[in-house]
Amino acid sequence: MAAVLAQNIVKRFENVLAVNGITLAVPDGEFVVLLGPSGCGKTTFLRIICGLERQTSGNLIIAGDIVNDVPPRARGVAMMFQSYGLYPHYTVRNNIAFPLRTQRVGRAVIESKVDWASRLLGIEHLLDRRPRQLSGGERQRVALARALVREPTALLLDEPLSNLDAKLRASARQDIKQFQRRVGVTTIYVTHDQVEAMGMGDRIAVIDRGKIRQVGTPAEIYDEPADRFVATFVGTPPMNLLTHNGAHLGFRPENFLPKEMIRGGDFSEFSFRVDRSEYLGSERIVYGAIEGFDSSQPITAKLPAHGAEQTLRPGEWHPFAVRNKDLRYFDQDGKRTDRH
Amino acid sequence: MQRIIASTLREVSFYGAVAFFVVLTAFPFYWMLITSLKSNPDLYNVTNIPFWFNEAPTLEHFRYLFEDTLFARWLLNSLVIGVCVVAITLVTALPAGYSLARMTGRSGEALGIGVFLTYLVPPTLLFLPLSRIVASLGLQNSMWSLVLVYPTFTIPFCTWLLMGFFKSFPREIEEAAIVDGCSLFGAFIKMVIPLSLPAILTTVIFTFTLTLQEFVYALTFISSSAQKPVTLGVATDLVRGDIFFWGEIMAGALIASIPVAIAYNFFLDRFISGITGGAVK
């Protein structure tokens, strides 16, 4: 059974169509990431799920019940906000206990659950502090403990890592994922960061302009993008697109290699003019253009950091190639097609 | 050497400017204090220096104020009026300010401006219609008429004040409380109110001060001495014909201004900062 099921959800703010018909089923225990650029409607959709916004039309079903008109407090979902929304006048202990208190849970039960949640996140030693006495990472853990303490049907996370610095973010990503596995709580995670989405999601729903463009595992999203938007939104650098007779031919930068590096299999050859290259330590990104094709973006190739720098001199043309199995085709509307 | 002269010059001009304004604002209070402690012969001798004691100071004016006038009663009246008006104002302006702050779009903004505009209508214009209302309620010549009338200017002012504060209040705290099991009203009571104490305290002090300094309504609605607030009592009962009881007037004004000065000094500073720290980000 799906823990959360959204059926054709539409949300209109005066003249703006923020969510334009999203249908999504999230099975029990799954970690789903809603990925999209800022302003694409992913946060609005999350707020509809938890009940902070009312959808203009469409049905929302949580744990088998239609909850369209159920207030947030009765939906059994927990939400962790972008800036956590901790209660500054409460201690950490009371912050975590708050969702239980509002449900009039007995004192002994509250104590044991706060104990359980704080131990789970390793914040037992912080229980008597106030939010302002905590570091960013600690606040995030408190917010997570507060969200989990009443064992919600679904846990909603709205860009929870955006307030952490880059180093902390990597470890927090790991923590959240591990901990979600351990607890097995259904999780819907909103982010605009594709690295978070790829690294954490069991499935990813790519959203653009209020619509889901594709839902799939990280590998499906990356290898078999459903349209041009998904192809260029996911991946750094994004998929190269060549325009030909109005249709598009796409291939990933790491599959675009000097011809001599391709051994075996069918491949397509291109003449590539190198403009410049960036050395990134573990790899090298080469920017340039392909003879005979229009492209709005420079074409990129992702090569090993060492080996090719001697032969690839800027301004010269080089034979490059892509294995045919790595070529992706998109029609005039940007939809994926099998053949050109 | 030049640098030392420049920095000295800067400090002198800085402290000079500060001293100028301190004297400008504190001097009336000083004069008030001196006058309230002067004996009458000293006070009414025009050849004496008015800013210092030419004869021995006396507490005679304070004695007269408390024993021969209804001054203590006026103070109590002012306190009762102030407390009642503060209570009425808070009960009305807190939810109003919060609603206006959270109403998005043009309607909320227009309503907010409309509320403020009512504050701008002067009492000298409003006392005529209001006196009809007061009379029809049978409250003429009663201090309760002021409890009824003062909220007409304290509520718009405080609604506006609180609206500004609530607009900067982190919304995620309320929303977290709502998702965590509160109703909107519950979130308002449990989160917004306790975290708005600095703003609420400011509102209380402003409201109280406004009621304390109001004169026009008090003058038009109240004539018997026992019902007067202190502002009116001092100004009317201590001026008989063309005789001003200067010593008593100054003593009365001094006593009435002390609690306000204390409130400003002690409370405002303490509450103004730091309470919402650590909530978000």
From TrEMBL, chain B:
CDD domains per the UniProt record, alphabetical: TM_PBP2
Annotated compartments: Cell membrane
Membrane topology label: Multi-pass membrane protein
Ranges where the ABC transmembrane type-1 domain occurs: 75-267
Keyword Protein transport among record annotations: no
Residue stretches spanning the membrane: 12-33, 74-98, 110-130, 142-163, 243-267
Alphabetically ordered keywords of this record: Cell membrane, Membrane, Transmembrane, Transmembrane helix, Transport
Keyword Transmembrane: yes
A matching Pfam family: BPD_transp_1
Entry-linked PANTHER family: INNER MEMBRANE ABC TRANSPORTER PERMEASE PROTEIN YCJP, MALTOSE TRANSPORT SYSTEM PERMEASE-RELATED
Family from the record: Belongs to the binding-protein-dependent transport system permease family.
Descriptive protein name: Carbohydrate ABC transporter permease
Species per Swiss-Prot/TrEMBL record: Bradyrhizobium jicamae
